[in-house]
Amino acid sequence: MEQHSEPESKQTKGHLFAGWNSPPNLVTYVRIVLVAVFIVLDVHAGRFGVENTSMRWWVFALFVFAASTDKLDGWLARKYDQVTELGKLMDPIADKLLICSALVVASSHGELSWWITALFLIRELGITAMRFVVIDTGGKVIAASQAGKYKTLAQCVGIAMLLAPVWSIMSLSEQVVSWYQSLTLVVILIALFLCLYSGAEYLVNTFAGRGRSQENGQVR
Asked: Is the pTM of this model over 0.85?
């Protein structure tokens, strides 16, 4: 039994980098590079973009573009049958880098409470670490669940709303801007709930799957 499980584990690990240079994965790499550009612009734009409003609008546009390309690499992978283990691992990491960096900068600017950002980071970094543990022990990468996909959508919408300097639109009254900011917080809190729920779901599915594998005398 042990002699059979060891080659299987090595084969799974070796398969992780298969198709590393496929077009969908190249798109993912570009998204990761865009995160670095996003961080620099967001920091220099200042709190709510007061220091540089035009740059803040560029930050908003870059975030929306980078978040939207998530669908592009997934679409390419499915259309051309190029879904890889590396892609399933790197795609959510690219999402987490973009979202977590936006949350950290927002909190450092005082635009979002640190406890909200902290809960997001604990979940995102924890699940990412769990994915690497699964791979290191010979398991397969578990793709994002439906709840996880809704979580990512809610995060992107909420953060995009937070990044948009709507206060700079002269035609909007202070009351409208206040309502907008309240709605933004509600969307972010919904994303936080989905974030924690999908994280718990991932842990349950991971340990349940490994438990069934051990019962069958297999290493996954």
From this structure: no
